[in-house]
Design brief:
Layout lengths: L2 H10 L5 H13 L4 E7 L1 H5 L6 E8 L2 H5 L4 H7 L3 E7 L2 E9 H7 L8 H6 L3 E6 L2 H11 L1 H10 L11 H14 L9 H7 L2 H21 L10 H29 L3 H13 L7 H5 L1 H14 L5
Parallel strand pairs: 2-4
Antiparallel strand pairs: 1-2, 1-5, 3-4
Length: 305
């Protein structure tokens, strides 16, 4: 096993609050034999604050058909992954994103049409429930693609006449990914992610570079981490367009899968951007129209970018 995969496996195995583990078990139980792993990530993992917060989980399933049966949710999850659902357990609340093992692997690679999965799993996460050891190994393999993709997409965007550290590389990478989505976070959020655990990123950085070198050696090539800057800039422009359109499309889909989704959107924007946007009753009745009215105003005001 590579050093990168070893680091990921050890990180995934780190302990969490018992309430998080219990929550994960309840999520997996809802999907029965389709459940493969449950991953915990995001701001609640970094801060360890749970009460009054919205926890973030990814549920990885064997297939959408196994998870949903013949439901229309199969098609929704295939065409616009992931499906996102609200969940509650023992006084805690969360949103749960559902991906198949195949999509989880694919969306952590550089060919993904948006950054949303690999940007998140280049950051710390915890494996809080697993069906078996094979499911764990598949999760490690999938996640190992995330930091490699981040570095592949960031190296060409660094200044060639400037010395920079591994920490600078991570920060620039997350800055680019935050810019490729409609995000409510403050401008320095990408740096604060790294600053929250600088030792972690210092450990992972050399292992990511080694993984890139090993990959290229396996392909019979010399290490090549500096691609054409023009090509990568073009790719980032495409990812920014895709990411922002996908955010709107997923919001529309969430109106059918996520009760109270527009209230959650407003809560998150207010929490991260320091705004006080209030959802009106008509916006809850017609959440897609309500969101379309809300988003341009927030973009103009700088609350989301």
């Amino acid at each position: 096993m590579s050093e990168l995969k070893s680091l990921i496996k050890r990180e995934l195995a780190q302990s969490v609050d018992p309430r998080v583990a219990a929550f994960a078990t309840s999520i997996a139980a809802q999907y029965g034999a389709a459940s493969r792993v449950v991953l915990f990530y995001g701001s609640c993992l970094r801060s360890t604050e749970l009460d009054g917060q919205m926890l973030d989980f990814y549920l990885i399933v064997s297939s959408y058909e196994a998870a949903y049966g013949k439901s229309w949710l199969v098609g929704a999850n295939k065409r616009l992954p992931p499906n996102v659902f609200p969940a509650e357990h023992d006084g805690l609340v969360a949103k749960v994103a559902v991906l198949s093992e195949q999509d989880f692997h694919r969306l952590n690679r550089i060919t993904a049409s948006a950054v949303s999965v690999w940007a998140r799993f280049a950051q710390p996460s915890r494996l809080v429930w697993q069906a078996d050891e094979a499911a764990q190994e598949q999760a490690v393999e999938a996640i190992a693609g995330a930091p490699v993709t981040l570095f592949d997409m960031t190296f060409p965007m660094m200044g060639i006449d400037t010395e920079y550290s591994i920490s600078d590389l991570w920060k620039r990478g997350f800055e680019l990914t935050y810019g490729a989505e409609l995000r409510a976070e403050r401008k320095d959020r990408s740096a604060s992610v790294v600053d929250a655990d600088p030792e972690r990123y210092a450990r992972f950085g050399p292992a990511v570079v080694a993984a890139i070198a090993a990959r290229d050696k396996d392909r019979g090539k010399e290490l090549k981490i500096i691609a054409s800057r023009d090509a990568v800039e073009k790719r980032w422009r495409q990812l920014r367009r895709n990411g922002k359109m996908l955010t709107l499309a997923r919001l529309a889909k969430a109106s059918a899968t996520y009760a109270g989704g527009i209230d959650y959107l407003a809560w998150k924007i207010n929490r991260h951007a320091g705004t006080d946007y209030v959802i009106r009753p008509w916006q809850r009745k017609w959440p897609i129209l309500g969101a379309l009215v809300m988003l341009p105003r927030l973009i103009r005001g700088g609350a989301i970018k």
